[in-house]
Every structure is written in structure tokens, then in C-alpha cells.
Amino acid sequence: MPDTEPTPQQDQEQRRLAQEKKDERYVWWYLAYFLFGIHLVAFVMIYAVTHAK
Known about the structure:
By secondary structure, the protein is mainly alpha-helical. The protein has one helix at about 10-50.
């Protein structure tokens, strides 16, 4: 009969993979906010240049 109880090493690997997935998700969110901010600044600068006297 197979052992259904995960070994401590398997449990640690599962926790490490879960943390890695969570961290990767945070990296994508930071990248999204950064790119949004860069574009917002660029549009404001374009507006300022085109409407300057």
C-alpha cells in the first residue's frame, strides 16, 4: 500500500514551490504598476510639450 503521508522533504518542496509561485505573482504585479506609471508620465510629458506656448 502506498504511503499517502508526504515526507518532510516533499512537504518542504511543496511549500517552496507555493512561495515561489506567490513571489512570481508579486513580481508581475510590480512590473505592471511600473509600466503603467512610466506610460502615465510619458503621456503627461507629451501633453505638456504639445500644449506649451
